[in-house]
Design a protein that fits this description.
Number of strands: 14
CATH superfamily of the largest domain: Crotonobetainyl-coa:carnitine coa-transferase, domain 1
CATH topology of the largest domain: Rossmann fold
Strand order of the largest sheet: 6-3-2-7-8-9
Order of helices and strands: EEHEEEEHEHEHHEHHEEHHHHHEHHEEHH
Shape: elongated
Helix content: 25-40%
Structural class: alpha/beta
Number of helices: 16
Length: 426
């Protein structure tokens, strides 16, 4: 594991000149703002006093304290909130709204995922903040977008996986044991929405370089859910044929699926005829590559019912490790089907430094829920920039950890902080 020292002086990241006001919760918005934070932006996460982001409580599993016991802090929150400064403000109170406006005046980017129109009552909508800071890039993340018949509806990842058709092409076929629509094992629409939102924000920054003006970004989970259907959507839109679930097989490639082995299973992903020929040669069945049923990918897909049983009988004669060793120098994609423990123990994952262990600074605020946790482990950013790589500055923060620090930067003194706390604003 890589050890990240929160006291160490980190190099400036690619976005270290930017300030982000994060009014989002749960996953899609926080995923976006963590990407910006990893790239060096100063991200200020605003949460509800006493409660915070919903995902702080979405457990089990929970973070462990220094003695190895469960805390009340869910691990979910840590997936998308590192490198941020956390403050608590009650935006339902006029004083809280005024402080958020002050922060927006100093910010380059604002990300929020309230229901459509939800921030207008507080004077924190795009039009209101654009009037006082025309350079502000304002990104709204909702389930269904800012317009259309569903705009007022709340949207969640699982709902969008169902509505977009993603579940209809995920899982085993109805006639297969265990068949039926299946969700993806992570909230993939939320995560993709966070990535798309980051791309849109970076594009808006480029526009601002030319015009000096910010703009409103309208990100919808449904839009993203439809977009990431990729080749399956292209196939339907151009032929009218509705794709069906087919488990771990591929609708357009063969063999491209899981196969049983002597000690479990493996994944064989043949993407072209050359790979198939090399597989057949290594597997001591070179005649398959010239078989008129299997000589091209289109033919292999057409004659899948003959090809796959023959391959399944063959793959069960060796262990997964033996198949990987046999094929890895033949440029034939083949690999184990790992659980998360095996994946994080993989030599390549470790060599790439994909696990980071961040020490947690001692926190003395009354709201802190994680002050007894020694460290938090997260997955490293996959962004690899040679000159300005992602930087690790802060572990996922405790609730309200940086409230006094951030508000002091706005010019508030200790007496003002005491008054705000007494009024329940922070």
């Amino acid at each position: 594991m890589n050890q990240a020292d929160p006291q160490a002086t980190a190099p400036a990241g690619a976005l270290s000149h930017l300030k982000v006001l994060d009014l989002s919760r749960v996953l899609a918005g926080p995923w976006c703002t963590q990407m910006l934070a990893d790239l060096g932006a100063d991200v200020i996460k605003v949460e509800r006093p006493g409660a915070g982001d919903d995902t702080r409580h979405w457990g089990p599993p929970f973070l462990k304290d220094a003695d190895g016991n469960d805390t009340t802090q869910a691990t979910y929150f840590t997936a998308c909130n590192r490198n941020k400064r956390a403050i608590t403000l009650d935006m339902a109170k006029p004083e809280g709204q005024a402080l958020i406006r002050q922060l927006a005046l100093q910010s380059d980017i604002l990300v929020e995922n309230f229901k459509v129109g939800g921030l207008k009552q507080y004077g924190l909508d795009f039009e209101s903040l654009h009037a006082i800071n025309p350079r502000l890039i304002y990104c709204s993340v909702t389930g269904f977008g800012q317009d259309g018949p569903y705009a007022e509806r709340a949207g969640y990842d699982l709902m969008i996986q169902a509505m977009s058709g993603l579940m209809s092409i995920t899982g085993e076929a109805d006639a297969t044991p265990g068949g039926g629509p299946m969700r993806v094992g992570v909230a993939v629409i939320d995560i993709f929405t966070g990535v798309y939102a980051t791309s849109a924000i970076l594009a808006a920054l480029e526009v601002r370089h030319r015009t000096g003006q910010g703009q409103h970004i309208d990100m919808a989970l449904l839009d993203v859910g439809m977009a990431v259907l990729g080749n399956q959507a292209a196939g339907y839109l151009n032929t009218g044929a509705v794709p069906q679930r087919q488990g771990n097989t591929h609708p357009s490639l063969a063999p491209y699926q899981t196969f049983p082995t002597l000690d479990g299973a493996m994944l064989l992903a043949v993407g072209n005829d050359g790979q198939f020929a090399r597989f057949c040669q290594a597997a001591e069945h070179p005649e398959w590559a010239s078989d008129p049923r299997f000589a091209s990918n289109t033919l292999r897909v057409k004659h899948r019912d003959a090809l796959i049983p023959a391959l399944q009988a063959l793959t069960q004669t060796r262990t997964t490790a033996q198949w990987v060793a046999l094929l890895e120098d033949k440029a034939v994609p083949c690999g184990p089907i790992n659980d998360l423990g095996q994946a994080f123990a993989d030599a390549q994952v470790q060599a790439r430094g994909l696990v980071v262990n961040q020490a947690v600074a001692t926190v003395n605020t009354a709201q802190s829920a994680i002050k007894h946790i020694a460290n938090i482990v997260t997955v490293a950013s996959p962004l690899r920039l040679t000159a300005t790589p992602p930087v690790l500055r802060r572990a996922p923060p405790s609730l309200g950890q940086h409230t006094e620090e951030v508000l002091a930067e706005l010019g508030l003194d200790a007496a003002a902080m005491v008054a705000l706390r007494a009024a329940g604003v922070v």
